[in-house]
Amino acid sequence: MGSTTLTYLDPAEVTAWLPEGAAQPRVEIAGRLCILAAKIRRAFPLAHPEEYLSIQNDAGKEIGLLRSLDGIEPATRATLEEELDRRYFSPRISRIDGLEQQAGLWRFRVQTQRGPCEFFVRNWRDSAHEMGSGRWQIVAVDGQKYDIENLEKFDERSQGLLDQVF
């Protein structure tokens, strides 16, 4: 087995921007290299979402870790935050307006922080995961993830509807 060495990046040496027409940011590490289509990933997306950010090349090979975005130049910070938001966006469900079974799928009609939404779930046991006490993540058939931050804070009607799938 080979050993893996972590490389921590100096925030002052990292510059990132989104070139016109590009889908992924370009990241330059001063004096070392330029990653033309960088991937930015959270090492611990649930436990420490603002810490330990992995900078990877387009093949997914880690170039280095940023301990946080502290000390990053503002334009670079904005680019990295936009990329993280795009990659990790999970609508937060605040209320369930409707839940019914259709052709072997559960059809959810919900309210999120970005407005009303509708999605389908195939198999509840495989698609819903308790992430902590009262916190759930639901994966729709299209792969989009939805979060319930605290099931106990749901209104009575939403809780009653969810009882159908539990």
From TrEMBL:
Domain DUF1854 residues, every copy: 41-164
Pfam family, one: DUF1854
Protein name: DUF1854 domain-containing protein
